[in-house]
Every structure is written in structure tokens, then in C-alpha cells.
Specification:
Length: 313
């Protein structure tokens, strides 16, 4: 019996962004320079495959500096950024540290600080308990920045402060964030906005690429981790853009072959912290069962590269 024919629309750009590539390179170069083990505070990026690979090379992952038994070893801060207190604590312990915060997250940190210095009370649009949000809020004194997570929060938000401004997490849904900002601008016409949008180029491009093909798909798969904000957002974008049957494929996922069997066209993308090998593995699983025709649909070429810190070269 001839295998069922399955058309795959492969979304591009997808997968690793420049901030993730830089963060992984920082861990690898730190191991080369300092030897193993090096410690990493929090998952360097939100992907089990990447974390396991770095563990095998000599990285030890911890959530807090206190857990590090040998303080003479270097520690790396994850791509999501850390509160100001963390580098200060590392100095207090006399630790060598390397900051792998994505430069686009650092840009938001600097923006928040300069708005605070200029006398603005800040609003951060983002998801509670996400490490990036903890890091950005941790740049400012307690009470000088408030978190808004959704349209409801924006409608209810009240402040005595005359001068308010907002920044956003870099991995949000572009459309959802636009709706939240519109509510805030309607309610606070003088609210100051960032000079340049905070949602990063990679998040924006990946969401645009998914939107571009989702309506043509019977099923849409995003390869990524459950705790990866940008991956989860891609699933939401695919659903809102016309493919209701969209789901995340993570390290524990079973591939829903029964659903794929009933589909003619499926879409595939991957989050900014998911390596391309996971996409290849997924497609290979499909090739074992179906006659696969792949059409890669690229909407924009990415050529952004971030350099690693000089001390690692």
C-alpha cells in the first residue's frame, strides 16, 4: 500500500535566534576557557535538549548561587537576564561570572533604568514568574515597576503616578501586546512608550512566518519547550491565524499520528530556543510513515549575530 501523501509547510525563519546562539556559545567557550565544571544559573535557554547537551560537556545547572558548592568555579547567567542583585551577590562570593543575557533583553533593562531615573513609574507587560520578567523587574527598586499580564489587568490598572511609561517582555505575542498597549494608551494618553519596540526581532519574525501559513494547514506543530514563552506564543498565533488544531511538541510529546493521518497539509515551526535537529527528527518520524513533500516558506532572511564577551575569546 502506498504511503499517504503529506504536505509540510515549513515555517521560516524558525528555531534559534541570535541571543540563544550567543548564550550557548558562551557556555561552551566558558568550559573551554575555565575547564569543567562551569555553573549556569537557571536553564541557559528553555530547551531540554540544549541543557542536556551542555550538561554532557561539563555545565552544572542551578537555580540560585547558594546551591553552588565550589564558589571558585565560574557561573553563567542565562539568556533571560537576572535581577541586579544576582551579579552583586556573585561579587560578594568573589565568583567569576559571565553574563549571557540576550542583548535585546539588556536593552529593555537599560531602558527601564533610564525611564526610572527620569522620574517615570514603570509598567512591564509580561508573564508573571517568567525569568525574563523577574530579571527586568529586578533592575529597579521595589514598588517602582508594576506587572500587567493581559487586557483585564490593563483595564483595571490604577496609579497615582502622573508620569508613567511601559516596557515589555521580549517574547510576547505581538498582537496581544498591541491590544494591551491600546487599552493603556486609551486610559493614560500621556503614557510614554519605548523608543523602539521591545518585542525582539526573532519573536516578531517567527510569529509573522507562522501567521503566513497557518490558515493553509489542517494541523500546526511548534517544536519547543513548555516553559519557552516564545514557543507557547507561536502555538497561540497559529490558532488565531486560522489553524485551530495547533499544538506544542516538547520532549515528552507523543506524535499524534492519528490526527496527522486525517490531514493533508501540516505546518511546522520551532521556538527560538529549539535546535534544528529537533525539527529534523520530527520530520524524519513523519517520513517513516508518509510520503512527505516539504515546502519551506521563508518570509524574511535573518542575519543578526551577537558577539560573545571579549573575555571568552
Amino acid at each position: 500500500m502506498k504511503n499517504k501523501e503529506l504536505k509540510i509547510l515549513l515555517s521560516a525563519p524558525r528555531g534559534f535566534c541570535a541571543g540563544v546562539e550567543r548564550a550557548i556559545e558562551i557556555v561552551e567557550k566558558s568550559i573551554q576557557k575555565y575547564g569543567a565544571p562551569v555553573y549556569v544559573r537557571h536553564e541557559i535557554v528553555h530547551n531540554k535538549f540544549v541543557v542536556d547537551d551542555l550538561k554532557s560537556k561539563g555545565a552544572i545547572f542551578v537555580e540560585e548561587l547558594e546551591e553552588i558548592e565550589d564558589k571558585s568555579r565560574p557561573v553563567i547567567f542565562s539568556a533571560h537576564g537576572v535581577p541586579k542583585k544576582i551579579p552583586e551577590d556573585a561579587k560578594g562570593y568573589n565568583m567569576t561570572y559571565v553574563d549571557a543575557t540576550c542583548p535585546l533583553v539588556s536593552k529593555v533593562h537599560r531602558e527601564a533604568e533610564s525611564l526610572h531615573r527620569a522620574g517615570y513609574h514603570l509598567i512591564l507587560i509580561g508573564h508573571q514568574n517568567h525569568p525574563e520578567v523577574i530579571g527586568t523587574m529586578g533592575q529597579l527598586p521595589k514598588g517602582s515597576i508594576d506587572l500587567i499580564q493581559n487586557e483585564d489587568d490593563a483595564k483595571k490598572y490604577n496609579t497615582e503616578n502622573k508620569k508613567i511609561s511601559y516596557v515589555t517582555q521580549t517574547t510576547l505575542s505581538v498582537d496581544d501586546t498591541r491590544d494591551i498597549i491600546k487599552i493603556l494608551k486609551d486610559r493614560f494618553p500621556k503614557i510614554k512608550e519605548p523608543a523602539k519596540e521591545d518585542i525582539c526581532y526573532a519573536t516578531t519574525n517567527r510569529q509573522m512566518a507562522v501567521k503566513n501559513i497557518a490558515k493553509e494547514c489542517d494541523l500546526f506543530f511548534v517544536i519547543g519547550s513548555r516553559n519557552s514563552s516564545n514557543s507557547v506564543r507561536l502555538v497561540e498565533v497559529a490558532k488565531k491565524s486560522g489553524c485551530i488544531n495547533s499544538q506544542l511538541i516538547h520532549s515528552q510529546s507523543k506524535i499524534p499520528f492519528d490526527l496527522i493521518e486525517k490531514s493533508n497539509t501540516i505546518g511546522i515551526s520551532s521556538g527560538a530556543s529549539a535546535p534544528e535537529i529537533l525539527v529534523d527528527n520530527f520530520i524524519n518520524e513523519l517520513k517513516n510513515r508518509f510520503t512527505v513533500i516539504i515546502d519551506e516558506v521563508e518570509i524574511i532572511k535573518e542575519d543578526v549575530v551577537f558577539k560573545v564577551p571579549k573575555k571568552l575569546n
